[in-house]
């Protein structure tokens, strides 16, 4: 049986162009989550790069979001910009009538870059998943506005969910666990989804509403081991209605497998 | 008299294409420093955006470095991808025969996004510039290999220069001050240069040699006040000969005015 994630990132490739479908099953409000779009872009880019004799594992992806992805057909096209011995660089666009997302993608052989580990930050302390607050316990109106919250199983450290009852901690940090709700194990390119699946970290500062990403850069460090992923999102910089959010993901062995930074709005 | 920086980022614009010159005066080894190239790209993008009725201040810039910039003529071209009410998104390329750097640029009115400040990290403690180690005191062979080190005045906290005498601290952090050597005051787009002007942070872990940036994302938060800038670069993630370097810049009022993350090699 195909997992929900694999179904959502299915595409048909002809040359360097792919057709796919974005689904509101992965929506946040009126937009399709940027993370599932980036996972799709990563997979198309990987296929095109391999076909061109290039590398297939995404090491880095920088995206600009021009307008929100909508439920329906989408076209993805990839241009390989440089095919080097150790890395391939590509540019990938997603269009739905007009252009929605554009990304630079650096690819390599992830297993070559995963070892040896010289420096690796430890995951923060947090209660076990069963002692955390479940995304499925979110208020019914939040769940009905977000298909994403039914596709991923998020467990937030109770110490950073005060915002859900009007008492944000003011620390600008969320910690918790994440996995696919249907039991699919995480793989390398799904980490891009998980980097952008938590509620906005500005909720912890009292901000309201999900807000669109302006610019995003994610880096993937290793294939994740099976099991729960640990996530920490933080912001240190909020001004003029803009903020930066940093996300880190550790796999079940405690290894940092991905991190990202995004520039996004913040509504107070 | 024109400052060295203004001379190095001079360009002649015709429509959405500009001609410029990269100079080994701003070199690191055989390459022209990526920071001066990004400052040039920011200025060209700003001019093209304004001509198209768009915004003029860079808020974010994500670049991929396809091959090193070389001394000589360069062509820069900008396409405005989206011109919105509050932000403009553009893509800018720098070519010298072949393509060298490609960047996504998000522009807005920086003064609108600079206030009010909701969250702003404080600069780290460090000795005053005169109590720090000067870049001009670097060994003669290092200075002769790097024009950049004569154009910017870097003062490193003595606590993080042990690597210069074979005793890296192992913390993965550099702290210090920076300004233009000829006394020019910093402005918004020059922050992109300053984000990429410090020695590689991996020196503090015992790595050798300046290494090319693969992918870079910088965010600009406010126009810097005149005077010294404080810089901290850190890495938490080094594996398989790749690392991520985060840089932060505070102006003389103690405000965080810019930050960046880059993916680069690390040679041990």
From TrEMBL, chains A, B:
Domain (Acyl-CoA thioesterase-like N-terminal HotDog): residue spans on this chain: 23-107
Pfam entry (one): 4HBT_3C
Start and end residues of each Acyl-CoA thioesterase-like C-terminal domain: 129-264
Residues in the signal sequence: none
Region called Disordered, residue ranges: 116-139
InterPro entries: ACOT8-like_C, Acyl-CoA_hotdog, HotDog_dom_sf, Sec_Metab_Biosynth-Assoc, TesB_ACOT8-like_N
Record-given protein name: Acyl-CoA thioesterase
Organism phylogeny: Bacteria, Bacillati, Actinomycetota, Actinomycetes, Micrococcales
């Amino acid at each position: 049986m195909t997992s929900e994630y694999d179904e959502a990132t299915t595409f048909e490739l002809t040359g360097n162009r792919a057709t796919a479908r974005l689904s509101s099953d992965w929506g946040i409000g009126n937009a399709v989550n940027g993370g599932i779009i980036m996972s799709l872009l990563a997979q198309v880019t990987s296929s095109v790069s391999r076909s061109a004799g290039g590398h297939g594992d995404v090491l880095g992806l920088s995206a600009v979001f021009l307008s929100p992805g909508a439920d329906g057909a989408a076209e993805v096209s990839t241009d390989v910009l440089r095919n080097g011995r150790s890395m391939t660089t590509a540019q990938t666009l997603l269009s739905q009538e007009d252009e929605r997302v554009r990304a630079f993608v650096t690819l390599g052989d992830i297993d070559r870059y995963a070892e040896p580990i010289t420096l690796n930050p430890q995951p923060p302390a947090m209660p076990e998943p069963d002692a955390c607050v479940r995304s499925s316990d979110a208020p019914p109106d939040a769940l009905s506005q977000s298909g994403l919250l039914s596709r991923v199983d998020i467990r937030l450290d109770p110490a950073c969910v005060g915002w859900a009852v009007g008492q944000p901690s003011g620390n600008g940090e969320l910690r918790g666990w994440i996995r696919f709700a249907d039991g699919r194990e995480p793989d390398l390119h799904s980490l891009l989804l998980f980097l952008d699946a938590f509620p906005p970290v500005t909720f912890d500062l009292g901000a309201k509403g999900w807000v669109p990403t302006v610019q995003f850069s994610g880096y993937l460090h290793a294939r994740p081991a099976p099991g729960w992923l640990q996530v920490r999102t933080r912001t240190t910089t909020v001004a003029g209605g803009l903020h930066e959010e940093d996300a880190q993901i550790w796999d079940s062995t405690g290894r940092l497998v991905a991190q990202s930074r995004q520039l996004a709005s913040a509504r107070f």
